[in-house]
Write a structure and sequence with these properties.
Elements (H helix, E strand, L loop, with lengths): L7 H13 L7 H8 L3 H13 L3 E4 L3 E4 L12 H20 L3 E7 L2 E7 L16 E3 L4 H9 L2 H13 L12 H14 L2 E2 L8 E10 L2 E11 L5 H25 L10 H6 L6
Antiparallel strand pairs: 1-2, 3-4, 3-8, 4-5, 6-7, 7-8
Helix pairs in contact: 4-8, 5-7
Length: about 280
């Protein structure tokens, strides 16, 4: 909860931008109806946005956004979108099964955890795992991504792992036939498990996360190895993990990424389910 009330001028400006984002051109009357902001205040806000280059006034038609608004979303690349979509789904899964769940994305020679439900799990081994770098070739999250990513990307990532001589876990990358066989097995099964020689106190079951048909990360559930064998964990938790990944895929495909040459948000929202 904020320790101070929101700045009303900022709130109003954001509401105006949200409505402008939904239509090619919007008049003052329509903006007033949809935002509830008095017309004189709307004029001042729009004139300010126009002076800063974000809005253009079309005489006798209304106001429209300019291409400069793209700069407001330039920092909202794939990782924030993935976290935004998956965080509530992962939180809900941990609330149900109690074990912690993590989201990892590739970062040069490692899979890096970008979101984790460790703080929400009563069964977590760690206090935090955010930004933890995990081997792509031994950890479940890394393997789940590596098995399903683009083949050209896979070769680049394996090459980076081979050059990480200081990481003992990546030594398996030198055994290329064994690694290829492991990745093929993961693709057939649809999931990855951590190499049993790495941190045997626990284990992780991981599945890939897709944006349309492109792998963009992996999610994994970690449990104490002493509580159940991997086969039981797969039986219990694979389906829920895959359901979360599928819901994330659908949400990422449908998530609006409006630019001046893309479909307006209101048209996307009017499309029937499954057509996004």
């Amino acid at each position: 909860m904020a320790s101070f009330p929101p700045v009303e001028a900022v709130v109003r400006t954001l509401r105006v931008l949200e409505v402008l984002n939904c239509y090619p051109v919007v008049g003052i009357a329509q903006l007033h109806r949809q935002t509830g902001i008095p017309k004189p205040s709307l004029v001042r806000l729009l004139q300010t946005l126009a002076a800063e280059g974000y809005v253009r006034n079309e005489p006798r038609r209304g106001y429209m956004l300019t291409s400069k608004v793209r700069a407001l979303a330039s920092g909202f690349h794939s990782e924030p979108r993935i976290v935004e979509v998956l965080a509530p789904l992962m939180d809900a899964l941990t609330a149900e099964v109690k074990w912690p769940v993590a989201l990892a994305v590739p970062d040069s020679d490692a899979a890096v955890i970008r979101y984790s439900t460790v703080p929400r799990s009563p069964l977590a081994l760690l206090h935090s795992s955010i930004d933890m770098r995990l081997s792509l070739v031994t950890r479940a999250l890394g393997l789940a991504y590596l098995a399903f990513c683009d083949p050209d990307e896979r070769e680049i990532l394996i090459g980076m792992a081979l050059r990480s001589l200081g990481d003992a876990e990546n030594a398996i990358a030198h055994q290329r036939e064994a690694l290829d066989a492991t990745l093929e097995l993961i693709r057939r099964r649809g999931y990855a498990l951590r190499n049993p020689k790495v941190r045997p106190v626990s284990n992780t079951l991981a599945v890939p996360v897709f944006d349309a048909n492109r792998a963009v990360g992996a999610i994994g559930l970690t449990w104490f190895a002493s509580t159940m064998p991997a086969t039981e964990a797969v039986e219990r938790y694979l389906a829920p993990l895959q359901a979360v990944a599928e819901r994330a895929r659908q949400a990422l495909v449908a998530l609006p990424t409006r630019g001046v040459d893309s479909t307006p948000v209101d048209e996307v929202q009017r499309q029937p389910a499954g057509t996004a």
